[in-house]
Amino acid sequence: MCGIVGYIGNKNAVPILLRGLERLEYRGYDSAGVAVYSEKEKEIIVCKTKGRVENLETKLYDNPIKGRIGIGHTRWATHGIPSDTNAHPHFSKSGKVAVVHNGIIENYMEIREILGSKGYDFVSETDTETVAQLTEYFYNQTGDLQQAVFKTLEKVDGSYALGIICSDFPDMIVTTKKNCPLIIGLGQGENFIASDITAILQYTRNTYILEDNEVAFVSKDSIKIYDDKKEEIKKDVYVVDWSIEAAEKSGYDHFMLKEIYEQPKVVADSLNRRFKPDGTGIQLDSIKLGREELSNINKVYVVACGTAYYAGLVGKALIEKLARIPVISDVASEFRYKDPLIDENTLVIVISQSGETADTLEAMRLAKKKNSRILAVVNVVGSTIAREADDVIYTLAGPEIAVASTKAYSAQVVAMFLLSLHIALETGKMTVDQFKEIKKEMEKLPSHINKILTKAPNVKRFMEKYIGSKNVFYIGRGLDYTVCREGSLKLKEIAYLHSEPYAAGELKHGPIALIEESTLVIAVATQEHLFAKTMSNVKEVKARGAKVLIIAMEGNREIENYADDYMYIPRTHPILTPLLANIPQQLFAYYMALGLGNDVDKPRNLAKSVTVE
Ligand code: F6R
To answer: Which CATH number do you get for residue 313?
Structure first.
């Protein structure tokens, strides 16, 4: 949540900050701002505004500023409404210190009171302003910016990634982080700071990934980094292999649509690397999760948030089905506070696209403390969760920019397929022949997804027919129910439509009271052993006036007897349908959002990387 970017070099910082902020907008878009040191004025000039980066651009067009050092911010509001005043960067009392911040300063009220009693007035409602004021307070005492920053960090509690500039040091950006991501981009005669690599990918792929409590003093030609003991350290350069094209729309109207269409490739990439060359099993990078390690595991936990959690539910179902090991699933925000029954014999699988989600990260840290074995399924290479986990399966989806997750979900589901097959093989619950049969079907998944994507115009027609819906129910059983949960989330998130996913058999225990004439019910019915049961639930809702759209596997012509509309996915092995059946749901949510005039890539109230709890 919130994106920060900074530049120091010989170029004008403003356009670089603006481009960076545009790429970071997925992290929040309530307001945007930049602070630049103007050599002409010999002071830091701030321009900030409520709303999107484009508003900031317009404001800067009318009031241009120029300078070779600057910091920028795009906000997801936590403390104080989205407004010009609460927008970052925030200034200290004298205007000497400007700060951008991602995270939450938990003891900001206390600090405000103390500084208030010393004559510091606060202009915003934010927690961030305390960092600017406190830095200046210590700077005035010590005359040393470095000491002032260290002292400030000793006083603040909470989570943060910070970018700080001071007009007395116009050749330096100070940056630090705790529980929020921050990287330093390394250029030639110029350097960058950013919440993530997409903001600066067009300038450099060479980065330092800052660890918690490290503080960096970034000049155009040098970078000094100190650890939590204030000792200078050397860090390895981490080279990012994402391409700049992957972070652009490439002719698509929206990132979400582009990312939906990237799924055949993402799935192919995820599979290609993971099958053993002789076809007898799975190779999970360097993860040691063989027969011996698994013999010590008597319980598996799957922990994640949102879409990643729903991908985890696919993993839960498949590990239980194929490997016959009990799996408990929990959303990270619950897991953290329930004193979970885990120990060194528990395998905790955490799933996260960003690798920075605060609740998932803390859930993982809790599990680590209890000596559980941590396997993280993560998309962003080098992210905090990836770095702190015992083992990592990278999902190879590439940068996902749209706030609503699509290709990352598919990559997570593929990882769950692979992991459950691997565990089943290693524990002897599946034979190599059985595996080979499923593998053959898995290899067809990319072309199956392509085939579904050619049916996008049909989905668009469903949108036109059902655009007036006020409530949408998703029903299914078993694996289909996990798919429903993801479909319903997507519709809520970008179409802003009230929607409920229900285990089809549970509907009659209450929620069926909400079904009325023309309520749209989407029934996912790919699990053919459960088909008759799901169809009886379809009949129940139809009897109460619902319109039913059914998603089923090709060849199941029976659905045509029950459905008002239907959509087939290519026939595949039943355990693989959660990947395919979700694609029409993604398209449906996309077209509904578009039809309703919503901002598909940046839905209201949301941000992609949820680094607050
Ligand atoms: C929904 C969505 C969110 C995320 C959730 C976890 O489309 O994107 O529900 O799945 O916030 O995020 P990560 O996977 O980054 O931990």
So the answer is: 3.40.50.10490
The alpha-helical segments, DSSP class H, found in 82-214 are 108-117, 129-142, 145-155
Same domain, 229 and 367: no
What's the pLDDT tens digit per position in 69-114?
999 999 988 888 889 999 999 999 999 999 999 998 999 999 999 9
Show the domain range for 208.
3-246
Active site residue 166: no
Q: Are residues 490 and 415 in the same domain?
A: no
The answer on 594 and 490 residing in a single domain is: yes
Q: Contact, 101 vs 77, CB < 8 A?
A: no
Residues of the chain with pLDDT under 50: none
Give the pLDDT score at 200: 95
According to the model, what pLDDT value does residue 562 have? 93
Quick check: is 484 catalytic? no
* 277 and 417 fall within a common domain: yes
Show which of 422, 443, 464 is a domain's final residue. 443
For residue 521, the model assigns a pLDDT of: 98
Q: What's the confidence (pLDDT) of residue 60?
A: 95
H or E, element range at 36 = strand 31-38
User: Best of 333, 351, 405, 586 to mutate for ligand 1, by most ligand atoms within 8 A of CB?
Assistant: 405
Query: Domain end: 211, 246, 281, which one?
Result: 246
CA of 305, closest atom in ligand 1: 6
Q: Which residue carries 């040691």 as its tokens?
A: 288
Residue minimizing CA distance to atom 11 of ligand 1: 306
Q: Of 401, 406, 162, 132, which is closest to residue 264 (Cα–Cα)? A: 406
Give me the pLDDT at residue 100, please: 97
pLDDT for 290: 85
Do 439 and 515 reside in the same domain of the chain? Answer: no
Measured from CB, residues less than 6 Å from any atom of ligand 1 are: 305-308, 352-354, 357, 360, 404-405, 489, 493, 610
Specify the ligand 1 atom closest to the Cα of 610.
11
DSSP string computed for 185-226: EE-SS-EEEESSGGGTTTT-SEEEEPPTT-EEEE-SS-EEEE
